[in-house]
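Q: Hi! First time doing this. I have a protein sequence and I read that you can turn it into a structure. Is that right? Here it is:
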Amino acid sequence: METTTKFARSHGSGEPTTFSKELIFPAILRNWYWFILAAIIGLGLALGFNKLFHGSYKSSMTLLIENDPHQSPMNTNLDNLNIKERTININDEQTIVSAYSLQLKTLQNLNWKTTLYKKLILGKLDLYKNEPFKVVLPEGAVQWRSIPVTLHMLSGGNYIAECDFQYKEADSERVIRFSGKGAFGQPFDNQWFHFTLDSTGFGGLPVEGSEYELIINDIAQMAISYQTQLVVKIPAPESNVLTVELKGPNVQRNVDYLNELGATYRKFGLDQKNQSAINTLQFIRSQISGVADSLTTSGNRFTKFRTNNKIVDLTQEGSLALQKAEEVGKRENALKLKINYYTELNNHLSNGNDLKGFVIPSIGDADPDLTNLVQKLTEQYSQREALSLTAQARNPRLITLNNDIELTQQLIKRSINGLLTNVQNELNSLEEQKNQTNARLTGIPQTEREFLDIKRGFDINSQLYNFLLQKRAEAGIALASNNPYVQILDAATPETTEPIGLKPTVNLAIGILLGIVITLGIILLRQYTDKRLKDPVGTEHALLLSTAGIIPHNKFTTDLPVTKYPNSAVTESFRGLRANLRILLKDQANPVIAVHSMTQAEGKSFVAANLASILALSGKKVLLLELDRKSSHVEELLGGSKGKDLSDYLMGTASFAELLSPTQVRCLSFIRTNKPDVHLAELMDAPPMEKFIKEARASFDYIVVDNPPVGILTDARIIASYAAINLFVLRMGVSTKKELAAINKTAEEETIPNMIVALNDVPRPARADKKAGYFQNEPAES
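A: Yes, that's right. Below is the predicted 3D structure, encoded as structure tokens:
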């Protein structure tokens, strides 16, 4: 008999108590999702409680107003084109955001044609974005708006629509009273309302007996209402930030409205920035269309003349004359372009056009005084547009601003008249230069002079055309690079919405706390009543022995996965068990490894068969000895042939070689024990058994023994004395604390030597297991 060693851990905690922290804490971690679910349920119940007593909610949005109109590098083209933008005034922007017209445009974008409420015991609930059916309004139908219609749901897709509403209009009082039956998918029509209820795509018809309130919205009245509820603040003096707040009973409706308001406001600002560049493009395109025709005509003449007269180039005298003529022509075209600009600008002032059609920027060396006046008038128009959104026509500030605009227009007209006179004088002076140039041309031969005239016209038109194309490209870049001067720093979200009026935070905290406490109580109750082992970390802490292997749940249909699924996590765990056993066995030759369990169904035979197979697959000769006479599954699993068993050898009626049965696993042999009428314990507790062990060790590198349960038969304790390793199997979810305590007691009493434990059927993934490092870096299953 070899010297035995007890593979025990000095830090073991002994038999696990019912409320051992080693088991409770992992159980809490393992069930973390239940705590979250319970907290969410508690939160939902608290929210439901709060909604029975509807309060109001405040949503907010933060806007940044950028004062620099040329933040984009591309916007330097605005300066090149003399496109001037108005200076942003934060007070004016505050007025614009809260203006009625902006609220009306926002509601039109949102297209809130109807509002649907669900009637509750106390009050009603806005079903925005949670409607159980769709309300379809026919186009062009005249509807009575802002009047509640009650819908009582019946069986079979029917409903009753009724209304009892009184209101005063001027000095008269009107009453709308009706009750009519309708059906889903069919129009409901009377002298007041026309609509169709459609449940398609909503998962079925509403519940019978439920009641809803339908209101066909009056967008104009809603805009007034939102304008009243909206609060626009400047958080600090000299700040370029606006805080927009909205109060209402429905969080999502508040959030959607504020975000759409922000988008509408940004587009309003961008449209203003784009207008100057758009007008510049329109002006340049109108000039290009005329120049392009002239360029085509002169180009055709130039090509035709050169072809007919075979002229390639000019003489030196002709080139000088042509150069001078082109300079005069270029200057003349520039002056005509100025005349066009001043004329169109003067026409806009005379016609009294609004701001969007007014700004026509200069594309040449415009007079700086005129440019400043145009910029000033642009700013005055912008101020008047912003002020007119909220101010009446008799508002003193609006009257003063109109007077200032009229004065600026007069100054611009005077400046235009003076500039037109100057330009005309310059054109007159150019005539003398043109005459001198023509005089020089008379000395040039006739053919060359004609060629000179044609080429001069072509070059002048080409230069002007290229100039206009360049300016059009610059204006296009300026338009494309424009960014809104409004940036949304913080959009409205449900998370940043705050309840006002009622204080539901305490209810929410109580709901969450109750959910957690109830879940903890259930876990403790299960911990107290459920004796099964479920947590590998807690089980390891409770054991007095070391754990040699962690075997995950076998999800395959075969009970021998190590042969069919070599890359699976189960096979990898048996490789780890094999490596740990080799370390524990050290230099022991031809060891006996006995696999035990305390009771049935703990996976003892599964572990023994796969352990023997994984040892054999490493190239070692392995013998699997089946001593559990109640288990024939292993023999069928390995493909062993029927023959003599161990009891025949112990009784002297068979040799060792006659016992051996080959299996389908390479290097693995099998010996059975299946005679139920033999007292195996008496036969094993005799010298023939010792002889059998010696022969087995002489023929095989490893002997793996599948023992009967220790707690049922004494056979296991007999073979344990021959084993270099006694491996006990505990199965998660099947083994109980009683089996664990029995293993610990056996280890303390040292009745079985060389004890060690393997945990079988460990669930994965499990948070506690991952924390302990189980199944990390495992290969992919195949």
